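Pipeline run #58 for the internal structure catalog. This entry was flagged by the ingest filter as a single-chain record with no existing model, so it goes straight to prediction. Upstream metadata was stripped on purpose; only the residue string is passed forward. Reviewer on rotation: M.T. Logging verbosity set to normal.
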Amino acid sequence: MRAFGRGPAMTHRLRFGQRPGSASRLMALACPLLAVLAATLARQAADPFLPPGFPFLTYFPAVIITAFVFGLGPGVLTAALSTWSAWFFFMPHSGQPISATLIALGFFVAVASVDIVIIHTMQLAQARLKEEQDRSARLAAENATLLKEAQHRISNNLQMLSAILRLQQGQVEHEGARQALRDAASRVNLVGKIQRELYGDATRDTATFLADLARDTVDASGAGSVSLSIRVEPVVLPPEQVTPLGLVMLELLSNAIEHGGADRPLNVAIELRRDDPMVVLTVVDDGVGLPPGFDLKTTRSLGLRIISAMAAQLGGTFELDGAAGTRGRFVFPATTLADPAGRPLPLRPGAAPDVSPARAD
């Protein structure tokens, strides 16, 4: 009886922590007996309605079901008991050549054997597939852990680099060089923040992240007369798109605070929306606007050149208008759009955006 239950069904039971004992052996014996008994009773009940012959009619399902549910050993036992039961109860023992009986029994044994082999092979393949899936899941979990660790180290290195730049800033006397180091430290710090927050939570709402980043930028600038209005639609973008998008928003907001105020209250409006199949970021201020003769293509501003590089990286466009205040518009195709739970969002324009006003006083 030890051979019973060594098929995939018993393999699954062992995998889930159950040890084969007397209960398993008893199940391996009882199930074939019950299956053959049920097949015999069903064949007996159907006998008045069947023409002569067909002794194995109800035993085929018994063999197939037992082999499929309980494994190789119970299936073989069911086939053996079914052969004996069909011969004993439903085949003539006299008046028919023994060769005809042997041929019929051999046919049933052959067909039942083929069924058992096919079922057993399928179960072995399924068991191997399950093992590969479990192995793939473990490898995916390990890779995710390694990726998070790598991103954490990258974020720490970026924070260290930002701190070094700020230390170096204090040793430089030239105001232009100090400002360049200050801007570089802020940009490096932004990339580190995006690395830390986005890769730590892949399903975080991009709009919420950008809104928080905008408020932090205004607070860090120390500009108490800036009123910030944020209108965003909930959307999730992959980190490789959020990083350039965050840099663009930071540059536009920093430029508005630095050049648009002119010692007076400044209103800045940030809007992020979907426009099938694009994503549109708009930053508008009511400041002094652009200088006369300004040309985006020939500007020497490092921040604006960074924005142009980010637009090229994302396959988008950037426009800057200074007719009344300053209006920057950044448009790019979104390859991944989803809600905060990670479900794909329909790319339909016209949805009412969330309005989240904020004021830095």
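catalog note: The chain has nine helices and six strands.
catalog note: Residues 1-20, 337-361 have pLDDT under 50 and may be disordered.
status: ready for reviewer M.T.
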